[in-house]
C-alpha cells in the first residue's frame, strides 16, 4: 500500500484500477453540468458528422498532450501517454453514455447515429475530467514532479490552450453566446478584451497563486508580452474554434462573429490562466 | 525513490485492455459518423411526414398519438404539426426531429379522430 503512494506509475492491475476509478470521479465532476444541459443533447444530432469527427480527433490529441503534462497516472513515455489517452477516452464515453441513459436523454428508440453523436460530444468534457480530475482532486504532486514538459514554454502554452478550450466548451452550447454578441456594441467588446487580458495577467502574476514567483521571472513587462498576450491569443483561437465547431459562427457577419469570439474568449482566458495554476 | 524514466516497469494488463477498449469505442464512433456523413447529406431539406400511430379515448376527449418521420439527413427544429377534424384544429410543436429519425407526440381532440383526422406538417426551423 505505502509503495503505491510513492510510486505513481501504476505497475499492477490493482493500482491501475484505482487510477481508473479516480478518472471516473474526475469525468463526472467535469461533465455532469454539461450532461444535464439540453442544448448539449441536441448538438450531437444536428452537428454535421464531419464537424464532430474533427472535434473527436482534436480531443484525442489534446488528451495525449494532457497525459504528457499531467495525466491520471504518471506516464513514462509517449507509448504510455497514448495508452492513457485512450483509457481516458473509454472512461469518458462510459461515463457519458451511463449518465445520459440514467436521465433518459439516451433512449432505445434513437438511431445509432443520434446516439453516437450525443455520446461523442459529451465525451469531450468528460475526457478532460478523466485525464486531469484525479490531479485536481489531490493526487498530483508526484505526478507533477516528474512531468517536465509543463515547465517549458510550449508546455505552458499547451496548458493555456487546454484550459481555454474547456471553459469555452462550457459556454458555447448555450444560445446566450450569440444573443450577447447581438446585444453588445463594439465598445463593450473592446472593454471585454481589455478585461480578459488584465484578468489573465492578474491570475498568473498578481494575486499570489501558487508558483507565481517562478512564473514572473523577468518582471511584468516581459511576462505580459511573452506570456499573457500569447495566452489571450490562445483564448481567442480556442473560442473561435469552439464556436465554429458548434456551428455558432454560421451565417454571422464578420463583426458579429468577432464579437461572439471576444465574448467566449472572456471565460476562455480565465480558463487559460487557471489551467496553468492548477493543472 | 521511483525511477520514472527507466522503462523497466511493466505496463499492467488492465492498462492495455482499457486503452484497447477506448480505441475501439473511438473508432466505432468515427465509423458510425462516417456512415452518417455518407448516407445523409446535411444541406438537404428536411423531408417530414406525419401519421397517426394510435387513438386513445380519455375522459371527455381523444388523444391521437402521432409520429413525425424525417426521411432526409437534415435535422428540423421547432416542427409544427396541425391536425384538422371537421371544424376542430389541434396543433403540436416538436423541438427536434433529427435526420433519419422519428419524433412522437399527441394531438388532443373533442371528437373521434378515427373519423377522418387530417394531419400535416406546416413549418419548421433549421437548427
Which class of secondary structure composition applies to the elements of chain B? alpha+beta
Spell the H/E element sequence of chain A: HHHHHHHHHHHHH
Structural class based on helices, strands and sheet pairing of chain A: mainly alpha
Q: Care to count the β-strands of chain A?
A: 0
Radius of gyration of chain B: 25 Å
Strand order, biggest sheet of chain B?
A: 1-2-5
Please state the overall shape of chain A, judged from the principal axes of the Cα atoms: flat
What quaternary form is this? heterodimer
Strand content of chain B: 35-45%
Please provide the ordered H/E string of secondary-structure elements of chain B. Answer: HEEEEEE
Number of helices of chain A: 13
Low-confidence stretches of chain A: 1-7
How many separate helices of chain B?
1
Measured between the Cα atoms of the first and last residue of chain A, the distance is: 26 Å
Strand count of chain B: 6
Largest sheet of chain B: 3 strands, antiparallel
**What percentage of residues of chain B falls in helices of 4 or more residues?**
10-25%
Task: Tell me what portion of residues of chain A adopts beta-strand conformation.
Answer: under 5%
| Helical amount of chain A | over 70%
Question: What's the layout of helices and strands?
Answer:
The complex is a heterodimer of chains A (279) and B (127).
Chain A: H1 2-6, H2 13-35, H3 38-46, H4 49-70, H5 78-102, H6 112-139, H7 141-146, H8 153-171, H9 176-183, H10 186-205, H11 212-216, H12 220-245, H13 254-278
Helix pairs in contact in A: 2-5, 2-6, 3-6, 4-5, 4-6, 4-8, 5-6, 8-12, 8-13, 9-13, 10-12, 10-13, 12-13
Chain B: H1 13-39, E1 48-58, E2 61-70, E3 76-85, E4 88-97, E5 102-109, E6 118-125
Antiparallel strand pairs in B: 1-2, 2-5, 3-4, 3-6
Amino acid at each position: 500500500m505505502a509503495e503505491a503512494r510513492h510510486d505513481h506509475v501504476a505497475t499492477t492491475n490493482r493500482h491501475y484500477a484505482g487510477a481508473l476509478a479516480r478518472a471516473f470521479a474526475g469525468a463526472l465532476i467535469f461533465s455532469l453540468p454539461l450532461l444535464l444541459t439540453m442544448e448539449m443533447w441536441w448538438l450531437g444530432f444536428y452537428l454535421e458528422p464531419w464537424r464532430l469527427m474533427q472535434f473527436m480527433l482534436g480531443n484525442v490529441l489534446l488528451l495525449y498532450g494532457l497525459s504528457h503534462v499531467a495525466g491520471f497516472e504518471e506516464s513514462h513515455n509517449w507509448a504510455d501517454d497514448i495508452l492513457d489517452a485512450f483509457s481516458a477516452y473509454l472512461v469518458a464515453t462510459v461515463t457519458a453514455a451511463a449518465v445520459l441513459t440514467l436521465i433518459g436523454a439516451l433512449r432505445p428508440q434513437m438511431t445509432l447515429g443520434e446516439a453516437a453523436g450525443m455520446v461523442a460530444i459529451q465525451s469531450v468534457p468528460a475526457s478532460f475530467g478523466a485525464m486531469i480530475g484525479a490531479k485536481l482532486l489531490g493526487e498530483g504532486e508526484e505526478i507533477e514532479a516528474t512531468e517536465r514538459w509543463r515547465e517549458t514554454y510550449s508546455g505552458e502554452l499547451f496548458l493555456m490552450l487546454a484550459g481555454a478550450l474547456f471553459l469555452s466548451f462550457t459556454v458555447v452550447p448555450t444560445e446566450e453566446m450569440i444573443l450577447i454578441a447581438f446585444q453588445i456594441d463594439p465598445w463593450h467588446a473592446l472593454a471585454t478584451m481589455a478585461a480578459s487580458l488584465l484578468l489573465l495577467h492578474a491570475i498568473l502574476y498578481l494575486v499570489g497563486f501558487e508558483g507565481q514567483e517562478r512564473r514572473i521571472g523577468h518582471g511584468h513587462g516581459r511576462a505580459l508580452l511573452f506570456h499573457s498576450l500569447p495566452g489571450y491569443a490562445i483564448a481567442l483561437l480556442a473560442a473561435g474554434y469552439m464556436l465554429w465547431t458548434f456551428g455558432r459562427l454560421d451565417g454571422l457577419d464578420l463583426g458579429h462573429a468577432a464579437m461572439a469570439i471576444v465574448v467566449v474568449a472572456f471565460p476562455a482566458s480565465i480558463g487559460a490562466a487557471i489551467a496553468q495554476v492548477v493543472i | 525513490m521511483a525511477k520514472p524514466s527507466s522503462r523497466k516497469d511493466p505496463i499492467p494488463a488492465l492498462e492495455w485492455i482499457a486503452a484497447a477498449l477506448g480505441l475501439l469505442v473511438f473508432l466505432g464512433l468515427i465509423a458510425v459518423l462516417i456512415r452518417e456523413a455518407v448516407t445523409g447529406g446535411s444541406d438537404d431539406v428536411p423531408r417530414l411526414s406525419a401519421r397517426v400511430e394510435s387513438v386513445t379515448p380519455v375522459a371527455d376527449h381523444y388523444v391521437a398519438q402521432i409520429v413525425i418521420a424525417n426521411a432526409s439527413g437534415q435535422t428540423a427544429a421547432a416542427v409544427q404539426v396541425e391536425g384538422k377534424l371537421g371544424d376542430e384544429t389541434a396543433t403540436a410543436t416538436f423541438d427536434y426531429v433529427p435526420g433519419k429519425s422519428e419524433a412522437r407526440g399527441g394531438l388532443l381532440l373533442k371528437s373521434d379522430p378515427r373519423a377522418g383526422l387530417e394531419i400535416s406538417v406546416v413549418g419548421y426551423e433549421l437548427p
